[in-house]
Design brief:
Blueprint: E1 9-14, H1 26-38, E2 44-46, H2 58-72, E3 78-82, H3 87-100, E4 104-107, H4 117-129, E5 135-139, H5 141-144, H6 150-155, E6 162-167, H7 173-182, E7 187-190, H8 196-201, E8 206-209, H9 216-227, H10 231-245, H11 253-263, H12 280-295
Parallel strand pairs: 1-2, 1-8, 2-3, 3-4, 4-5, 5-6, 6-7, 7-8
Helix pairs in contact: 1-2, 2-3, 3-4, 9-10, 10-12, 11-12
């Protein structure tokens, strides 16, 4: 019997804020979290891709997580992204996150090395065995080059604390394949912004979103409209939102989303190298999309 969790709704993948010298800016990170909760998000993902997980040391990750747990104060669930190069490091990070007080984990396959099916299942089983926390498995084969297939999730049905799938392949057919193969064994969350509404229609019970960091009110409007059965209104908001939702599937999604957040008054666009802030035509193109959407944002 899998662990029971109440994860549903919109969960922002929260950016990690830095000072000008690239040290952690905990107060601004907490201010952003408070603003997101104030606009009605249903949960938080700390230290995912947008949180620049792989750019932080383990000690820094723990500091961010403790700060998130502190400011959230039990109001919404806090999940920690686990993105490590080795399975042992993933287990160590999972245990450190549990000690920091988070409510769950969003676990990615091992980074850099493209594991095969047997190795991928072993990785997730090992991380699950290292912690009592419930786990969301993050499937994003276009980026991480590892596809966690429905057959692999079938193999892991006996792992009680693997409870949820973040589906970010970009192919919405996979959502139906998951439900056909697995029934209701796992929660399934939309994991890519620009196929979110399609994923809701197919049965996803939540959304891990990037652009919600800049537009939490509009994200909530879209979610609430769909959940209320007002699909025409949901589609209207989705079409308005789409030019920015495409940012989430770009290789520079962190820079795009941080710049968008800073433009809307949430934090700064500072990122850690090898990422660099946007410049020139690329920066102007992103800002023109954001400004156009701000001017026409739904009421």
């Amino acid at each position: 019997m899998p662990l029971q969790v109440d994860w549903t709704g919109v969960f922002p993948a929260v950016p990690t804020q830095f000072h000008g010298d690239f040290s952690l800016n905990i107060p601004t990170t907490q201010e952003h979290i408070e603003a997101l909760i104030g606009e009605g998000v249903h949960g938080l993902i700390m230290l995912g891709t947008i949180g620049e997980n792989c750019s932080l040391s383990l000690d820094e990750k723990v500091r961010v997580l403790e700060a998130a747990v502190e400011v959230t104060d039990g109001r919404v669930p806090v999940l920690n992204g686990v993105a490590e190069f080795t399975t042992q490091n993933a287990c160590d990070t999972a245990q450190a996150a549990e000690a920091a007080g988070v409510n769950g984990l969003m676990v990615m396959p091992g980074m850099v090395y493209n594991s095969d099916g047997r190795e991928t299942v072993h990785h997730f089983r090992s991380v699950a065995a290292s912690t009592g926390l419930p786990i969301m498995c993050y499937n994003n084969p276009p980026v991480y080059r590892v596809d966690i297939t429905p057959e692999m999730f079938k193999e892991m049905e006996d792992v009680e604390n693997i409870v949820c799938i973040k589906e970010a392949s970009g192919d919405v057919r996979r959502v139906t394949d998951l439900f056909n193969a697995l029934g209701d064994r796992y929660l399934v969350f939309a994991g890519l912004d620009d196929v979110a509404l399609e994923s809701f229609v197919l049965g996803c019970s939540g959304w891990i979103s990037g652009l919600v960091d800049a537009f939490p009110r509009e994200n909530r409007l879209l979610w609430d409209a769909f959940m209320a059965g007002d699909h025409a209104r949901a589609l209207e908001i989705y079409r308005w939102y789409m030019p920015m939702l495409h940012f989430d599937s770009h290789p520079k999604l962190v820079q795009y989303i941080k710049l968008t957040c800073a433009t809307l008054g949430y934090g700064t666009e500072t990122v850690r190298a090898p990422r660099l802030p946007l410049v020139g035509e690329e920066r102007e193109r992103v800002l023109s999309i954001v400004h156009r959407c701000v001017e026409t944002r739904p009421q």
